[in-house]
Amino acid sequence: FEDILGVTTSSNEAIGVEDDVSNMETSITASPTLTLRIHKDHPKSQIIGPVDNPIQTRHKSKVVEEQSFIATIYQKTDPALLQFCLFSCFLSQVEPKKVSNALQDLSWVEAMQEELL
């Protein structure tokens, strides 16, 4: 730093030297207008999509796209066929090998009771 600033940092030279505080300001004025780092409203040029829609995160927009995909399929497919396909997605494809295993699974017991009634 001595070469760049022309100031020495040696403690031997600083002994006995007093600072001149007469050239320092006694009061500091603050700006009456507050400046915030975080702005609540962004410029309209930065808004992507319709202004009327609520704010969407990347995750939320993905969910909306998936829902619109299902709605599109529903419109183009026979509702009975679509219901059957969606119902079959939730059915268990694995049958228990032992009765004791079947009795431990409440959904399996309920399904068997519905079949018997």
Can you give a write-up of this model?
- With 117 residues, this protein is mostly helical.
- The N and C termini lie far apart (92 Å).
- The protein has a domain at 65-116.
- The chain contains six helices and no strands.
- The protein is elongated, with a radius of gyration of 37 Å.
- The longest helix is centred in the middle third of the chain and has 19 residues, at 58-76.
- The model has no long low-confidence stretch (mean pLDDT 69).
**Rg, Cα atoms, Å:** 37 Å
In percent, how helical is the residue content? 40-55%
What portion of the residues fall into strands of 2 or more residues? under 5%
Mean pLDDT: 69
**Structural class designation:** mainly alpha
Number of DSSP helical runs = 6
> Could you give a short account of the major beta sheet?
none
Counted beta strands: 0
Label the overall shape.
elongated
The string of secondary-structure elements, in order, is HHHHHH
- Report the oligomer: single chain
Features:
mainly alpha, elongated, single chain, 6 helices, 117 residues
SSE blueprint and pairings:
Blueprint: H1 2-5, H2 11-14, H3 58-76, H4 79-89, H5 99-104, H6 106-116
In short:
By secondary structure, this protein is an all-alpha fold.
